[in-house]
Amino acid sequence: MKEAKPVSLVTGASSGLGRELAEILCFNGHKVYVVARRKNLLEELSAECKNHSGEIILLPGDLSKIEFRKKIIPTIIKREGKIDYLFNNAGFGRATLLEGMESEEIRNMLEVNVNSYIHLANEALKYMKKANQGRIINVGSVVTFTPLPYFTVYNATKSAVYSFNRSLRYELKNSKVTSTVVLPARMKTDFAKTAFHCSDRETHMQCVEKFNKIAGSPRKVAFVIVKNMDKGKEVITPTFKAKIWYFMRYFGFAVDFAMKNVLGPKQLKDLKRMR
Fold this sequence. Notes:
Order of helices and strands: EHEHEHEHEHEHHHEHH
Number of domains: 1
CATH class: Alpha Beta
Mean pLDDT: 92
Strand content: 5-15%
């Protein structure tokens, strides 16, 4: 009898790390349900994976909407009867002074970056615990320990993801279901394109290029995540830079000094150029 394919859910799969994860999982023979707002990009991903041993199944929608989120896990269970892996990856940020953010933008960021993670894990666990197997992979960030200046709300969401994962592991101690948080350093994705808001295209591209100058490859990060996803680790630091920044949690005073006196003033200068 042919063994059933593993069933995975990847959020934020239209670009960046989520797209890389979905493609690698598909190559490895998973049935991958992919969630994002941009249906056209999910369709492109599906087409690229046609020759792999797995399958891409589209669930386009907006994760900031609770009614959409409510449908995701039940849809997968109805079709597959199980869910083996949940990759909570979707997220976005914005570089700005806190008072420069509208309340609706703050709400949306919290919904996508935090609430969708908790909501989907809550739904998936009902089936994972019953089967006594499953993996929840939450994509956090090293900014949990080294928060970037002028990304106040984004930093807060990533800290919440880290704490959520750590607490959830206490609940899962006596089960075969595991929860892991990934703490990548800066990656060359579309994050910067949405993080910097400029009316002037040239200024915007300069900010994006500057932000991405020291960014790493999301493909490499995705490979490390997939390689370690069944090991049940609490934390995955996928690159050397990520390991260094994670280690810096022991030197909060040094991080504070650098952010306040070096990176902060540079970032503020860029923000003023964007006005």
